[in-house]
Automatic annotation (TrEMBL):
Name of the featured protein: Late embryogenesis abundant protein LEA-2 subgroup domain-containing protein
Positions of the Late embryogenesis abundant protein LEA-2 subgroup domain: 57-147
One Pfam family in the UniProt entry: LEA_2
Alphabetized InterPro entries for the sequence: LEA_2 (IPR004864)
Lineage of producing organism: Archaea, Thermoproteota, Candidatus Korarchaeia, Candidatus Korarchaeales, Candidatus Korarchaeaceae
Organism from which the protein derives: Candidatus Korarchaeum cryptofilum
Length: 152
């Protein structure tokens, strides 16, 4: 009986410490920033343009994270013209990691932006997305949004 009375505060202390640690890891994961480093035209054909998109993730915390999935959409004047994704990226503590991926933008979805691209040689794109980061066994969603201009 006396041993169980001693174990109860110890177990409670362990549970409280674990909850505080997990909370710190989750709040640190939400501070990971995702930036569109570069968008370059990698190729073009009569029906589409292929864009190389480079995303950089910056982890200011001292925890190691794994981004299981990064999904983003590209918009021109509020119209979605393409999707992209990256899978399984390791984000070490206090580091910046960049990954690139190719995506196709079909001219049929570009509308007015295609006219700007042909007349001005550039177009403004909005990139909106989410990154799912695993914190022990809890997925944490990190949202990002950025505006970029690509030139021919």
């Amino acid at each position: 009986m006396r041993n169980s009375l001693i174990l109860i505060p110890i177990i409670l202390l362990i549970l409280i410490a674990s909850a505080l640690y997990l909370n710190d890891m989750i709040s640190s994961a939400k501070r990971i920033s995702v930036n569109v480093e570069r968008m370059e035209i990698a190729g073009a054909s009569f029906e589409k343009v292929t864009i190389n998109v480079t995303l950089c993730m910056e982890n200011p915390s001292s925890y190691y994270y794994s981004a299981e999935e990064i999904r983003y959409g590209i918009y021109v004047e509020d119209a979605k013209v393409g999707n992209g994704s990256l899978n399984k990226i390791a984000i070490p503590p206090k580091s910046r990691v960049c990954e690139s991926g190719l995506m196709d933008l079909y001219y049929s979805g570009l509308g007015k932006a295609l006219a700007n691209l042909l007349s001005e040689g550039k177009v403004d794109l909005n990139v909106n997305g989410t990154m799912k980061v695993n914190v022990i066994f809890i997925p944490v969603e990190v949202k990002f949004s950025e505006r970029k201009t690509i030139k021919l």
